[in-house]
## 1
Amino acid sequence: MKLDAEQLASIQRDGFLVLPDLFSSEEVAAMNAALAPLFAETSEANVREKKSGEVRTAMGLHLRNALFDRLCHHPRLVEPAQQILGHELYIQQVKVNVKAAFEGEAWQWHYDFATHHADDGVPQPLALNLHIFLADVTEFNGPLWFIKGSHRHGAQPTFHDTVSTSYPLWVVDRDVVADLVGKGGMVSATGKAGTGLIFHDTLLHCSPPNLSPHDRPIFSLILNPVSNRQTKLARPEYKHHTDFTPVTALTDDCLLQ
Ligand code: SIN
Ligand code: MN
């Protein structure tokens, strides 16, 4: 699947691109069916919410389940990323951020490169985060908020937050957030189940807690150029994969075979 010129210009300008109806309801149902047993596993790759113990993020999914392995090779994810970054990309991180009904806690203001640079030694902010909504994402169930165009201001100063949530993250100061919101404004990424979303490594984002009765599972695949691979191998495999083989696209029907 190829992005058109307008889509490429919009991701360049805004730092993100929403792709409605990227996956069918049948494909999303297959992904959700595969998730339930994964969430039930006792695994350190299932990171749990601080307060409730609900799964916050289930990581390393392509190593734990064949359908998620195929999803990481799906042409509707891999080909747009290759169009933007070139062909030699490896699978950096694979997860579902669950944001459980009533219990899903916030993700603090951050940009992904800060953590992958500080903790994994990724040299440059080139990676792309490719999302699929596995349920309808609305104003109520904790959608991602982006600061439009913030990726164009580059890497901002960060500090390591090990306190606010169960997932340690390099986060951005409030004054930087306020400044960049003043420049670009905020937008929330909502859409029906099956919606796709692509965003840049230095785009500032966060998400509020989910106080609604609806779960908000979102699949996330981060692809990074092999030439920009991590230089520190300190974190566990499920947080940054060490197989730097370039990812190749399967056929478009690979999920339902
Ligand atoms: C993230 O930024 O990695 C997670 C945000 C979310 O799932 O709400
Ligand atoms: Mn993030």
## 2
Amino acid sequence: MAEETIFSKIIRREIPADILYQDELVTAFRDIFPKAPLHILIVPNHLIATANDVKASDELALGRMVTVAAKLAAEAGIAEDGYRLIMNCNSHGGQEVYHIHMHLLGGAPLGPMLSQRL
Ligand code: 5GP
């Protein structure tokens, strides 16, 4: 069983966060250290540690994460120009918080997908 992270406390509103959306499956809130003019994290309400831990029973929540990302992008007025959705996994992916989350980044041209080329 994976250990809870700070994101579970945000989802339960036990610690402050700028929550933009919440339903029975997912919660979306602003990243505390934004890496783009718009940087939102979209997370399932139940704990899934990494992409490696996703089960078929999680598919509804994972799909909802994408529809909520598109809705928030549209509401922010960045859908037409575009944005980036990122999900980091484990150390090589740069994952820091082990509660699976999708980054919604936009509001400016984001440059190449990766800062380093192989
Ligand atoms: P990761 O590197 O795991 O893909 O991304 C974790 C993200 O969570 C980072 O962008 C980081 O800024 C954000 N983050 C970490 N702790 C908090 C927090 O307490 N509140 C919020 N809103 N974001 C956080």
